[in-house]
C-alpha cells in the first residue's frame, strides 16, 4: 500500500526529531499543497523550493525523499527562485534520491558552481524537464544518465560556446532544446551533436516575436510580452470538491507535531513561528507555483510550448516563405507571407549561430525530424526551400560526395575494381567510370574521414627552449611558412626578431637564428625552392637577410650565428617578401607605395618600383611557375598584375575590391588569384585577365579593422579564410564557393578567445592546415595551431594562454 502524504509528514517530523533539527515549514507546506491537489483529483505534484533549504536540513529530507517512490505523490518538481544556502553536493543527492518521480528541476538564474555542473553532467538525473538557465557550462557534455529527459533549457548560458562530441549520447528522448543567448556559433559541430537526438522536434537559438502594424514587438495575442523562458505563475484552482475535513486533519497534525517537538530540541525563534502559523491558515496558503510554460504534466507526451510569443496557428499555411536572408529589412528581422497577409518578426535573445548566413535553412535541411525552429513551425515549403538552399551554398562532404561512406567500404570497392580491371579483356569497359580518375579513391577516403570527424583535431605546436638549453625560453611567432619540399619542416619568425626552423611533426627545433639585436618583428619569410636549405627573412625595421640553415656554428648546436647569411639593402617598414620560381630574384613590399627587386646571387638591390599603388602595398607575390609575373595587393582597394619583362611601368591589369586588400596569392597552377580584402571580402580572379571567377560571399562583420587572409588548401581545390576580429576559419570549395566547414578557435581559459593572424594550407597533407592564432586577452600569447580535418578530436588538447603580443594585425600575409 502506498504511503500517504500525512504519513510522509509524520515521518519527516520524526526524522527531524532524531537529527535534532527544526522541521522546514516550506517542506511541510509543500506536502500540504500536494494533498490539496490529490483531494481535487489533480495530478499530485510535490513542489520543493530549494531557496530556504540549508545543509542542516539535508539528512532529515533525504530520509523522506527516499520514501517518495513508495508514496501517493505522483511527481516531484524541484524549484529555485533565488539564492540558496544548500551546497551543490547535497542538492544533487536530494534530487537523485527521488528517483523516477522527479519531473521538473528548475535551477534557473542560479549556480551551485562548476563542481555542481560537472557532477550533474557526469552523474545524470532522472528528471523529465531540466532548466539550467544562466548556467556556467563552457562545453556541454551530458554523459550521465538522462534517459527520461525530454526538455532542456540552457537559455542565457553566456559561457556556453560548443558541444562535446558525445554530449547528447545519454539523452535519447530529448524532444525540446532551448539555447537562446548563448555563445554557440559553429553550424557544423552543432549539427553533429544535435543529429544524435533522434527525438528532437523543437529547437531554439533565438526568439522570433511577431510585430504589429506599427512596428512594436509583441505576441500575436497581444498580451504576452515575456522573453524566452520567463517564468509565469500557473495557478492550480481549489474547487468545492476539496475535502475540508482532510485538509484540517493534515494541517492539524503538521502544526501540532511541530509545536510539540520544537521546544524539546531548542528555542523556537519568532520568524519560524510566524511562517508556521501563516502556513496553518487555509486562507493564507499560496496555491500558485512558478513554473515554465515548457513544463509538462507527467502524463503528457506532447512537447512543451516554451512560452511562445507567436500565434502558431497563423503560421500553418501553404504560402511560400521568402528567403530570410534576401528579404531582411533590418538586422534580425524578416517578413513571412501567409494567406491572410504578411507578418513581420524580429529576433530577440539570439545566439551567434543565428547570424550565420542561411542558418535556418541549414538547420532545417540537417535535422529532418525537426518541427519547430526558433518558435516558428517548419512547413513543407520551408523544408523544400531549405534543401535547395543547402545544396546551393554548402558542401555536405568534400568533393561533392552526398552520403557518408565508411573507409572500409571504399577500400573494398577499390580492391574489387582493381581485380576486375586486371581480369577484364581490352573490349570491356571499366567497372566504375568515376573510378577512372587517379584521385577518385583518394578523394572518397577524404570524404569518408571528414564525414566521421565533425570535430577536427586541433593541436597547438609546442616549441620550447629545451633544445637550446633554456627551459624557460618561449617563442612568440608572428609569421610562418611550410617548407616547399620537406613535409616535416616549417619556419616561423617571432615578434622578437628570431627565426626558428622546426620539425613540426616531432616539435623539435632544427635550426635557431637569434635576432642579434638587428631584427624586430619578422613579417616576411620565404623558402628558396631549388636550394631548400635557404630562406629569406625580413623584419618590420627593414632588415633583409638570406640564411642557410645547414651552416650552423659548431660551438652551439642548432644555433645560427650569422655564418652563411647574406645581408641585403634594407626596405623600410617591410611587410612581405617573396622569391620567384627560379630562385634568382625576390621582391619586398611594405608600408609604402613601392616594391623593391633584389638579386639573390649577387645580394644587390636591382631596382625600386615607385608609386605602384595609391596606398601602401601589404603583400607582393610571384607566380608559382613564371619567374617574371607577380601580383600586388594594396589598401587602395586594387589588386594589380605585373610583368618584370615590361619593366613595370604600368600593370598588366587592375582588379578592384570594395575595401582595402590585405592579401593576394596564386593558385598552385597559376590559373587563379585569390584576393582577400578587409572584412571577409574574398574573391577568386582569373589570373590571365583579372576577371571575377568566384565571390565566396563570406558574411561581413561591419568592422573596418577585420583584416582577412585567405590561402589555398589541397592544391587549388579548397580555400581557407580567417580574420583578425573572428575566431573562426572557413573552408570553402574553390570551384563552387560552397562552405564545407568552419573551424572554431577557442582559448582554454574561460572568456579567452583567439583570432587569426595568418594561415597556410599544408602542401603535403590533404585537409591539413596551420593557423597563426593570437589571443585577444593581454596576458596571452600567439601560437601556431595545426588542424587536421580528417582526424576527430574531443578537444582534449586545447590551447593554453601565455604571454601576449599586440602586433599590427594589418601587416603581412
From TrEMBL:
Transmembrane segments: none annotated. Residues 356-374 form the U2A'/phosphoprotein 32 family A C-terminal domain. One of its GO terms (biological process) is cellular response to UV-B. It comes from Theobroma cacao (Cacao). This is Transducin family protein / WD-40 repeat family protein. PANTHER family: BNAC09G30780D PROTEIN, PROTEIN DWD HYPERSENSITIVE TO UV-B 1. PROSITE patterns: WD_REPEATS_2 (PS50082), WD_REPEATS_REGION (PS50294). Residues 217-236 are annotated as: Disordered. Keywords: Repeat, WD repeat. It holds the Pfam family DHU1_N. Residues 223-236 have a biased composition (Polar residues). One of its GO terms (cellular component) is Cul4-RING E3 ubiquitin ligase complex.
